[in-house]
Amino acid sequence: QVQVVESGGGLVQTGGSLRLTCVASGTAYLVNIMGWYRQAPGKERELVATMDSAGTTRYSDSVKGRFTVSRDYDKNTVYLQMNSLNPEDTSQYHCKVVVGSGWSKHDYWGQGTQVTVSS
């Protein structure tokens, strides 16, 4: 069973930085896409940033230029460096891992890590 564990959330002031880490374990198959989504209370889950196995990245417009996603492929780990944080970034951040490719792909989610930005 694939396990996805996030860490690195916390409380930070406006303008501050945090680095989130997500580690996927328990699979011998290709870890295709790893990335971050966030969900605030009363809102839908939204994409933050992802990176696939080729290094291609996707960012939401709201975080471009402030957040950077990166991966350590050997360790099945994805990072999210968040700079210039503002209160609108306050949310539960979830890591999503896509294992496999083509017709045999499976999504796995972590429990989430809370990021709170104070004004």
List the helices and strands and how they pair.
Blueprint: E1 3-7, E2 10-13, E3 18-25, E4 31-39, E5 46-51, E6 57-59, E7 67-72, E8 77-82, E9 91-101, E10 104-109, E11 113-118
Written overview of the protein:
It is a single chain. The chain is an all-beta fold. The protein has strands spanning 3-7, 10-13, 18-25, 31-39, 46-51, 57-59, 67-72, 77-82, 91-101, 104-109, 113-118. Strands 2, 4, 5, 6, 9, 10 and 11 form a 7-stranded mixed beta sheet that branches. It has a 4-stranded antiparallel beta sheet with strand order 1-3-8-7, with no helix packed on it.
Kindly state the number of beta strands.
11
Strand content: over 45%
**Sheet of most strands:** 7 strands, mixed
Helix segment tally: 0
Run of helices and strands: EEEEEEEEEEE
Radius of gyration: 14 Å
Shape: elongated
Q: Gap between N and C termini, in Å? A: 40 Å
Average pLDDT, rounded to a whole number, is: 95
By helix and strand content, what is the structural category?
Answer: mainly beta
Instruction: Give helix % range.
Output: under 10%
Short description:
The protein has 119 residues and is mostly beta strands. The protein is built from no helices and 11 strands.
